[in-house]
Write the structure tokens for this entry.
Amino acid sequence: TEGRRVFISKPINHFPLDETATRTILMGGGIGITPMIAMAHRLDAIGADFVLHYSVKSRALAGYLDHLAQPPWSDRVTVHVSDEGTRADPARILSGYRDGWHVYTCGPDRFMKAVLDAAEKHGFPDQARHLEYFSVPDLPEYQNHPFTLRLARSDRDIPVAADESATDALARNGIAVDVKCSDGLCGVCKCGLVSGAIEHRDFVLSNAQRATSLILCQSRAARPGGIVEIDL
């Protein structure tokens, strides 16, 4: 429609591929196979060691089976079909961890949790465990409290009420921040963290990233009345 405003932004990759890995294990469940296929093509192009595991309930519901049989790396693909009795066993697939291995997973919540739990059990460090959500998972019963955003660059304090997000409070005070999903999934509103205890509610940042960053649309001060200093 003429005159309609459309949101655009630079591409933001919050599911990056570590091309220095000594071995990469790709595990896609259902539609979660799509990013794994792109990663597999890239890993093959750079001559990296990888395997791809595709989990589906039935072949009738599986997409990309023909596609996965065509590339030169098709011998690295294992298809797991639940109704054929070949359900994936993450504990077995991820056993034998060696330094430099990485695992990537995308799919239903329970599937990804099983993969990541097995990876952690077998010694994959936090920075070697990667996941991507397609939709917002079930959320805990969070309780919101008012807190203060302290803007490090402009030396301003912005109060955030219990019934609004940090991005809402910033917008109310005329401070432009890019926002897209408002669910903590896309990473568009990622901001540098200077100081303050945070209750991280996003699904984007790793534990290591949370030490220096936060997702403004969802995360809040960990305590009522807390002060969160950010790089704005």
